[in-house]
Amino acid sequence: MTTVTFNRERHIKYFLRCLKTFLPSFYTSNDSNRMLLAFFTVAGLDLLGVLQSKTTPEERQGYIEWIYHCQVPTGGFRAFTGTDFGADNRTPENEAWDPANVPSTFFALVVLIILGDDLSRVKRTECLQWLPLMQRDNGSFGEVLGPEGNIEGGGDLRFCCFAAGTRYILRGKGETDVDGTRDINVENLAAFVQACQAYDGGMGEAPFCEAHCTAAVDSLYLAAGHTYCAMGALSFLSRMSKNQRPPPVLLPGAKEFESLIRWLVSRQTAELGEAEESDEEDSPEADEIQKPPTADEEFELNAGLAGLPSIAPPTEDSLRYAGFNGRCNKYADTCYSFWNMATLAMMDRLPLIDAARNRQYLLEKTQHIIGGFGKGVGEPPDLLHSYFGMVALAFQGEEGLDGVDPALCISHRAVRHLESLPWWGERA
């Protein structure tokens, strides 16, 4: 294999540009997802180990103040300040138009942790009282509370993961200062997650859905891997409960656990989606294939087989790169390296992948010359793929990157800060 290099300095410049200048125009439609964009940017600089040196204390405090400005008085955080019509104008009748948002609440908390905040201004009790209101009878979670307290949005594993993560951060392992606060229904949540496992071992967005590591959605922060979210939710629950029997998908040796492992490892692929070098439109063979068959040919099986294109066997060169896809028969994508590897890390099975070929794919095929990572081969960088590309490399011990907690998706340094908070640790 050729020697490839992680261009750390270029990645630092990329994330600093995203933090301190205007984002490219295609982010305009994601203004309402600004909390997630803040997470990718701040967490990216932290993972690179330069957040403290490349930003001033005044700048970091400014970021913290902006996040607290997104806090909703009744608990939780909004996704951006655009829906805030002021505390004086907020009433029980109109508060549904400025709701707390389950994913944004999780991201707001982790960004505060990364920035070194002690969470003392977070409305912990109010947020923990709001969280059970977002849970449906089947154990799943919605996105926001609408008029008359109706649960709206989502209903799949994405929101289950964010809700479980918020509970994990705010209750802490000691669960101090929250005695008597109503908790979510942990058993129903765990049962819903287990019910999402498909016949092939992977997790669908809901029971009886196709297993996959991504979701086709129109909001940036919802582009989450359902299989990752399933194991993330269960990881958060298992970290807090020592007496509850885990579901089968968490038990090594159980068929549910082993089938999920096989499915995840099978997501590594050498199919990268690169453009073909030959121009098929100019070839006579292509013109012939495009002709509609005659009536006689429709019934000629041999003629149909003869018209099928030949598939060349893989070569040594084509197998040098092996990224990950999100579903069967899909091309590799930078973010899938994260979704699959993080899930395997939570299951303590990360060594099963071909790390060397995944590194070749990320650094030679999707790492961009200006810094950051693109979605696929030859594509421009964006914040989501840039951060997840680095996290995937961090799982493999890439020099210049901090280690990452696979469930919280933040650096070990930030996790140590969370665990240092006086109310968070084990109960004495």
Which spans of ≥5 residues are poorly predicted at pLDDT below 50?
Answer: 215-224, 276-284
What coarse outline follows from CA principal-axis ratios? Answer: globular
Q: What structural category do the secondary elements indicate?
A: mainly alpha
Total helical segments: 17
What's the CATH class label? Mainly Alpha
Order of helices and strands: HHHHHHEEHHHHEHHHEHHHEEH
Task: Work out the helicity level.
Answer: 40-55%
Strand order of the largest sheet: 1-2
* C-alpha termini separation: 53 Å
Q: What can be said about the biggest beta sheet?
A: 2 strands, antiparallel
Second-tier CATH architecture: Alpha/alpha barrel
How many individual domains?
1
Number of strands: 6
Query: What fraction of the residues are assigned to beta strands by DSSP?
Result: under 5%
According to CATH, what is the topology? Glycosyltransferase
Which radius of gyration do the C-alpha atoms yield? 23 Å
Which whole number gives the mean pLDDT?
Answer: 88
GO molecular function: CAAX-protein geranylgeranyltransferase activity; metal ion binding
Family: Belongs to the protein prenyltransferase subunit beta family.
Protein name: Geranylgeranyl transferase beta subunit
Organism: Aspergillus ellipticus CBS 707.79
At a glance:
The protein has 428 residues and is mainly alpha-helical.
Key attributes of the depicted protein:
17 helices, 6 strands, 42% helix, 428 residues, mainly alpha, two-stranded antiparallel sheet, two-stranded antiparallel ribbon
